[in-house]
Each structure stands twice: as C-alpha cells, then as structure tokens.
Amino acid sequence: MNSVEIHDCKLIWENCLKTIKQNVNQQSFKTWFEPIRPVKLQDAALTIQVPNKFFYEWLEEHYINLLKVTIRQELGEKGRLEYQILMNKSNDTKPTKIEGNSKSHESTNGLMDSKQIKNPFVIPGIRKIKVDSQLNSNYTFENFIEGECNRLARSAGKEIAAKPGLTAFNPLVIYGDSGLGKSHLVHSIGNETLKKFPTKNVLYISSEKFVTQIVQSIKNQSITDVTNFYETIDLLIVDDIQFLGNKKATQEVFFHIFNQLHQTGKQIIITSDKPPKDLEGIEERLISRFKWGLTADLTMPDINTRIAILEKKLEKENVKLDKHIMEYICYNISNNIRELEGVMVSIIAELSLNKKNIDLAIVKDIIKKFVRNTTKELTIDHILNMVSTHLNIPLDKIQGKSRKRNYVEARQLTMYLAKNLTGNSLKSIGQLFGGKDHSTVIYSCKSIVDMMHIDPVFKDTVETIEKNIKMSINS
C-alpha cells in the first residue's frame, strides 16, 4: 500500500472520529474509539484495526448505527467498514482479518456481515414477537377534549397515529405540568395506532420502569437482550423522561435505542414536565435529539374546555348536574384536570352512597377538599373593587348608566370577570348593574373578548386584573 492510500484512510478516519466524538461521551470515546487504527481504504471499504474480538463485538453491539451513518457520510451510500483483529499467540501479534464479503447481502444495520462473526443484531424471528403495549384502553382521542390548551399536540398525535414514523414529528415531545393530560394523550396516540395498524408493536413505558429495567439487565449482564427487544418496537412511548436525569448508564442505553429506532423510521414519543432545553441532568446529545422533531406543550384548559371535559366525564357516568353548578365547579378548579376528576368522583359518591341531591352548597364543600386557600369566597363586589382600584374609576361610575367609553369598558370588564371567576348566574350578575338582563351580560363578555383579540395592551390589563383578583382571595 502506498503512502497516498495510507494518508487517505487516515484522513477519512479522522473525519469519522470528529463526528463520533460529538455523539458519545468522553469516556466512551477514549475507551472504544481512540485505540482504533485505520489500515486501508479500497472500493468504498475502510479497514480498521481493533485490539481483540471482544472489542469488535462491543462496537458491533453498541455503536453499529453510529459507525454506519458516519462512514456513509465520508464514503457515500456504498461505504462500509471492514475489521482487522489483533490475535495474541505465543507473544506474537498477528492481525486476523475479518472482511465484509461484497457479494453477500448487507445486514439490517448497514455494515457488511462478517464471515467469521455473526452480527449480534441479526436475530432470526425476533420481528415475530408480539409486544404487550401496556396501554390504557380507556384513554382515546374520542374522550380527549380538544381545546387551545392542547390543539397542537393533539393534532400532531392524530397525524402520527395515521402515519407512525413517517411524519416530521419524530420524536414528538409533549411537556406540561402534572395533571394536564399528557398521559391521556400519549395513550390515545398508541391506541389509535394499534387500531389502524394491529400488527405494529407499540409500547408505553414510564421512565422509572425503564430505569429499573436497565439497571437489572446490567446486573444480569443481559443488556443486549433489552436493546434487541426495543429494536422490535414500532412506536415507543416513554413517559416522564425527566426521571432519567443524572442516570448516566440508563441514558447511554436510551441514547442507542433512540438512535436505532429513529434511523430505522420508527416513531418515538416522549413526555416531560419541562421543555427539552430545561431538563436537568440529561446529556446534551440526548437533548439535541429530542429537538429533532416537534415539541408541544399542554397548558391548563380555559373555562369552556374545562366545562366540556366535565360534561364528557359526567355523561360517561350517566350523571346530570345543573349547568350553573358545572360552571361553578369549573370556575373554581383551575389547577389541573385531576382536581376536576376528583371533584367529579366525590359528587358521584354523594349521589350513589349518601343518596343526596347535588346542590351548590354540597359542591362548595367538596371543592374545599381539593382547592387550597378557599377560606375567602370570591364575590362580584370584590371584583368590582379590584377593577375600580386598578382602572382608577369610582364604583358608582362602573355601576351607573353613563355611556362614557372608559366607564362602559370598566362595566363590561367587571361583568366578564364575574362570569369567568364566580358561580353567579348571568341574571344575578346583571342585577348588580342596574337590573340588566342576561343578554346584556353576554354582549358585554363578547365585547371584552373581541377587544382582547385586537388589542394586546388591553388583553394584558385584563389578565393582570384577573391575576390580582385570584391572588387576593388566596392570600
């Protein structure tokens, strides 16, 4: 081999190492890649020399996809690796060549199969395994209420279920506070996928269970079995990924599982309590991969969505409540959906166990068990005082009949806040403003909503007053 060929293969391998170094941690790079020596470059095949057979097997088992992608970046689609293994016999070092047979078929991993050593990823029949999805069949798109709070994530989920692994949303990262419906949504995606594609392998797993699984497999020296299993999954859902924080060994395994699934066109869905950039204790190389697809947040549903959710849940349980009671519940439960479900369960218990008719007094008692700091009841008078103070408009002007623009806006704003923040009926709200009827209150609320849509400064004012009202009754 002449000096030009040696120079070329070294240059190619140096370029490969630059890419590899960006995708593995420092210790792994030092252990598994620094000892490798480039030997020859011929016919789009780069031959590298590794210290022993174990070293070769470890590369094939843990880094085969990274090597495949890297070598093809340098040598094109036909690029492949061949190995030379140093065998120690009687203190003599003899290179034993493991060649890729150019006439044989290419393995599922993109590198040429060796005649001497079987690729550990090629396991006959493993694709025939049918996986228990671990999905909750009660969570479906049909009972997942759509609103502004979840529309992006829900729409992406529907597209994924129709074409798993074939959309731009891979991975799909859904984040938000506890109790906002993340688990419900990802189970819905999984169930819809299985409904459309019964032969696909779908798996839902919590990150805590995944960590336990990896720790146990490392202890039992069966990590290969675990990674082989995950390669059979067509749609992998990992819930609460933040619990992988600072667990380096588990992250190492998940990194390779993620790469393998993504590179083979499989779908990955992840949930967390924070956006990827704010996850603590997660390696940057994983964070960067989480950003490859779509990141969508779930926020607290607005009042109309909360009412729709409650109606749907009550309908399922065949329970009917007066509309003003449902409105009162949803006005006062604004932290998460689980609190709303807890109130509903207590109401059902009162109906079935205590045989009580549900009135507003009973609902108020139930809500006190779920919402902290409810010693103060929000009244329209309190809202009036807060609006008057913030806008510096006298109370009598807000409640009077003046048609001056700023007085009218203050009056309409008070009605809007009273409707959204209290359990009072439209009629009772109108009575406090000179005996106005319910249609006037409805018109006033619509006027405020329209103004908020076209005037961001006015919207900020409304949101600030609403926030101050809530803080004042919870202080």
**Residues in β-strands, percent:** 5-15%
The rounded distance between the terminal residues' Cα atoms is 81 Å
Helix count, DSSP H or I runs of 4 or more residues: 20
Uncertain parts: 88-128
Gross geometry: elongated
Q: CATH topology of the largest domain, which one? A: Rossmann fold
Give a count of the beta strands, DSSP E runs of length 2 or more.
9
What is the CATH C-level name of the largest domain? Alpha Beta
Q: What about the largest sheet?
A: 5 strands, parallel
How big is the Rg? 31 Å
What is the CATH architecture term of the largest domain?
3-Layer(aba) Sandwich
Could you explain the architecture of this structure?
The protein is of the alpha/beta class. The chain has four domains: 3-112, 2-Layer Sandwich (GMP Synthetase, Chain A, domain 3); 141-297, 3-Layer(aba) Sandwich (Rossmann fold); 303-368, Helicase, Ruva Protein, domain 3; 380-474, DnaA protein, C-terminal DNA-binding domain (Chromosomal Replication Initiator Protein Dnaa, Chain: A, Orthogonal Bundle), CATH 1.10.1750. Helices cover 51% and strands 11% of the residues. The protein is built from 20 helices and nine strands. The chain has helices at residues 3-21, 26-32, 53-62, 64-75, 151-162, 182-196, 207-219, 223-230, 248-263, 284-290, 303-316, 323-332, 337-352, 360-368, 380-391, 395-399, 405-421, 426-431, 438-454, 456-474, and strands spanning 37-42, 45-50, 80-89, 92-98, 172-175, 202-206, 235-239, 267-272, 294-297. The protein has a five-stranded parallel beta sheet with strand order 6-7-8-5-9, sandwiched between helices. Helix 9 links the parallel strand 7 and strand 8. Helix 7 runs antiparallel to helix 8 and helix 19 (438-454) crosses helix 20 (456-474). It is elongated, with a radius of gyration of 31 Å.
